[in-house]
Amino acid sequence: MKVLTVSDKVDELVYSPAIKRLAADVDLILGCGDLPAYYLEFIVTMLGGPLFYVIGNHANAVREQQKPYHEWVYPGGCVNIDGHVVEYGGLLIAGLEGSMRYNANPYFQYTEREMARKVWGLFPSLLMNRIRYGRYLDILITHAPPHGIHDRQDRCHRGFQAFVNFMERFRPRYLIHGHVHLYHPHQTVETIFGDTTVINTYGYRLLEIDEATG
To answer: Whole-model pTM?
Structure first.
């Protein structure tokens, strides 16, 4: 299965008619946060979807507060899978939004303990996957990286130990994240941790992911 993954940056090639040539044969789109709603809506309109996503720490980049009712508006035609597990095309996919808490904003930031609770909230669905499919999960999409993998020392960009524990316990084939911007070509964007390939999808990536057999 061909998968387009996007995060953090509105790429001029993706946000143009050229997306038809770039990703004409894409079967699935995954969004890892901090992208405006119009961008996700453009991608899913041009490629047909499905598009599963999580929200990053910059909430106003994905949900826009509408006055006077202060309603949160989600990208049309896309599916927010924060705290959920979905199956598509033989792939088992889950999502976890947000970043490490670093200021007083109450939305889309989490302490380590709060993220650990979100992780364990997935357990019933993961257990059902194990019973039904013989495995817990194929892909976990997150905004923040795991602790010690692609992260940085400042609190905002520090990764979650909860994601490391998740990989050790549930052994997804992929953990795909954003949040950490890439400024030079020598930054590490792909790391193997146990059975999991951790990918930083800042901007966009095109991946070939085969359906698992158990």
So the answer is: 0.94
